[in-house]
Amino acid sequence: xxxxxxxxxxxxxxxxxxxxxxxxxxxxxxxxxxxxxxxxxxxxxxxxxxxxxxxxxxxxxxxxxxxxxxxxxxxxxxxxxxxxxxxxxxxxxxxxxxxxxxxxxxxxxxxxxxxxxxxxxxxxxxxxxxxxxxxxxxxxxxxxxxxxxxxxxxxxxxxxxxxxxxxxxxxxxxxxxxxxxxxxxxxxxxxxxxxxxxxxxxxxxxxxxxxxxxxxxxxxxxxxxxxxxxxxxxxxxxxxxxxxxxxxxxxxxxxxxxxxxxxxxxxxxxxxxxxxxxxxxxxxxxxxxxxxxxxxxxxxxxxxxxxxxxxxxxxxxx
Amino acid sequence: xxxxxxxxxxxxxxxxxxxxxxxxxxxxxxxxxxxxxxxxxxxxxxxxxxxxxxxxxxxxxxxxxxxxxxxxxxxxxxxxxxxxxxxxxxxxxxxxxxxxxxxxxxxxxxxxxxxxxxxxxxxxxxxxxxxxxxxxxxxxxxxxxxxxxxxxxxxxxxxxxxxxxxxxxxxxxxxxxxxxxxxxxxxxxxxxxxxxxxxxxxxxxxxxxxxxxxxxxxxxxxxxxxxxxxxxxxxxxxxxxxxxxxxxxxxxx
Lengths: 318, 253
Fold this sequence. Notes:
Strand order of the largest sheet of chain B: 1-2
Distance between the termini of chain A: 111 Å
Low-confidence stretches of chain A: 256-264
Radius of gyration of chain B: 22 Å
Distance between the termini of chain B: 39 Å
Order of helices and strands of chain B: HHEHHHHHHHHEHH
Structural class of chain A: mainly alpha
Oligomer: heterodimer
Number of helices of chain A: 19
CATH superfamily of the largest domain in chain B: Transmembrane di-heme cytochromes, Chain C
Number of helices of chain B: 12
CATH class of the largest domain in chain B: Mainly Alpha
Mean pLDDT of chain A: 78
Largest interface: A-B, 48 and 54 residues
Number of strands of chain B: 2
Helix content of chain B: over 70%
Structural class of chain B: mainly alpha
Low-confidence stretches of chain B: 1-20
CATH architecture of the largest domain in chain B: Up-down Bundle
Helix content of chain A: 40-55%
């Protein structure tokens, strides 16, 4: 009896085991088949990047942007994927067209921007969707690793806007010290240390409708600054005279270049006096403190050293 | 070497008065002044610790310190609280010495005099072995510089600090240029003060061989007779003269 029981048991166990193994392999193959966008076999790196993409997590695959025949369960090499409306690598001018299929409002906003205007004028190196959001590794903007995350926005813009060759390539006169001068502001100093509720590039210049500050419809056009600074969550409820708000966030240029802002800006003299002081006060006061601090500390630290050395001389002190 | 021997002899052959007298202390600071100094130390340290990471945001220690004090928002709150404490201290100090302290303003010993300039020069000569060590009265030129440096610094830091705390209120009265200047003035002045305290002031009251590990005057408010003779000989003489005049009156303690 015992013997029979045991064999029955082991038989049952082996049956269950077999069943479990089958279920396991079925599920593995089902899952891996779903993940198998056949492009992976050649474009391994790109697809690996794509797996961090917020679109991948929402169920999109290569064909949704690149066109072609959608065959999630395709075999190792599937020429069919690259058929139909397959476009391959889109040109920079066409990237917006792909994104706008879903992101209608964003694309509409972007098309008012100076970036799009420059692309239209035949400067394809101007920023398009992928320059800020990433190409295959598009993350949600709430993701701290996203290049368009609030924290990373200054570095992302600086990729181009601190690049001297790029900035002077088609339009002479775009300043490349924008990130450096932003670094002087409290906004950056706070952001740098993890305080998120401060303005970065996109907050003032707008993320999609980025316009030149000379454009009257721009958020950074002098007359529009009160509205921009006074946004809810920033400095609301503050009495903004048009004049008062018209400050330079990107000031203290002189501290970096050593040149007087006064001589460089093309402001009318009245405004110049209002914003920079009667002469370039920032420059002179910074210089004054440099001399004062070096002088006072130099003299007194020197006295400390002399005091210390005088102890070695065996002379009567008191 | 010969000089050293003389010093030793003179040390052993002290006047009898010193050894027979019980230990005498000289009042250096009133309790009021001690408390002011303690509040000053506390608020100053907090201000430096929470302020410097913003002056140097790209330094490696900047985020370390900010995380240590509890994040950027906490940093700002601590900085504001300590700043307001220091401003109140300054207001109290000025009010007290203008209206409550009965001593006539002009007779205060804290005003800089010509002797201080001479003493300054003599100190330098002394360091090079070209002169005697200057004899100080109640306050040496170093102490006066400390005091007026802190006084000037507190006024500057208070004004610019308030402008930075309420930039948009300030812009109702002054142009934008001055608001952004206040950030330069505030941080540079603070850096100067910090360096001065950590290098010069701490040398004088902490590290200097006479007082190492520290001068206890900031805790007790008293100076020993020895210290008094060395550091404020003129005041010592004056006090002793007064004592001799009225033998009955106890020493100034």
